[in-house]
Amino acid sequence: MRTGVALGSNVGDRLQNLRAARTALTAIACPPILSSRIYETDAVGGAPDASPFLNSVVEFEFAGLPATLLLELQRIEAELGRPSKRPRNAPRTIDLDILYFGNLAFATDEIMIPHPRLHLRRFVLAPLADVRPDLILPGQQETVAELLAKLPPTPGAAIFAESF
After folding, report:
1. Annotated catalytic residue: which of 14, 22, 37, 97?
2. Cα–Cα distance, 54 to 57 (Å, whole number)
3. 76-113 burial, b for 16+ CB within 10 Å, e for fewer?
4. Concatenated DSSP letters of 51-94
5. What is the pLDDT of residues 70-87, one digit of tens each?
6. Which of 14, 95, 122, 130 is catalytic?
7. Which is the catalytic residue, given 14, 22, 37, 82?
């Protein structure tokens, strides 16, 4: 099933953290693997002095279940130095979020698909529009590009790199 995963980092060598996460994802993904540009954005919802994030999106084919993917993402986060117990919106070496899983829409205590605030976040929609501008997410009526165009401009957001 085609799956979108958001990658973010605001601690340490942020670009290297994204690269390491993307490399780890290739071990669980089936081609083709699509990758967005890398964006630098101010931290959302964290401390006022939080370092900016680097954000990107990767889309790939995944042969397992969403719960299996979640466990794999948590394993990758742990391997890259993210503690499993942390305050909400705390700085992190890596953050991996399932954005969508095909056209599934469901929620459990552990996972919500599609990501519940995806359509409201420029730092996710901009990189997602790089790889899937015409995608209509479950529960939405507009494409990713249309959702992005409706958001107000965000100061402190810029393209950081064209590729990994």
Report:
1. 97
2. 11
3. bbeebebeeeeeeeebbbbbbbbbbbeeeeeeeeeebb
4. PPEEEEEEEEE--S-HHHHHHHHHHHHHHTT--SS--TT---S-
5. 999 999 999 999 877 766
6. 95
7. 82
